[in-house]
Amino acid sequence: MLLVYDMIEQACNIYVTRASLGTDGPALIEQVETLMTTMQPFPWGVPVEHTLVWPLFIAAAESSMPEQQNYFGDQLLKLYRQNGFA
Predict the structure, then answer these.
(1) Dihedral Cα 5, 57, 63, 38, nearest 10 deg
(2) Which one of 5, 23, 62, 76 has the fewest CB atoms closer than 10 angstroms to its CB?
């Protein structure tokens, strides 16, 4: 559960930073990479996985590198297939 809280907190920080910097601000590559690294040990198939939709969406929206975009896009598709969020 702490892993989920950490990912949500990181997404909040990404969101607030982007809101503060505006759309013309620098890419938040390191923050997105940190969230990606934090997420890797997440045990898929647990009841709380639906709570990751928002952090994944924020990270995907902020991703500026193709590797990040692909990773978060794949994770969102995985969640969609598993629990059908729309």
Answers:
(1) 20
(2) 23
Token representation of residue 17: 């930073």
**pTM for the whole thing?**
0.89
CA distance 35 to 5: 12
Residues whose CB is less than 8 angstroms from the CB of residue 30 and which lie 6 or more positions away in sequence, other chains included: none
- Return d(Cα 66, Cα 3) in angstroms, integer: 25
Query: Is the distance from CB of 50 to CB of 73 less than 8 angstroms?
Result: no
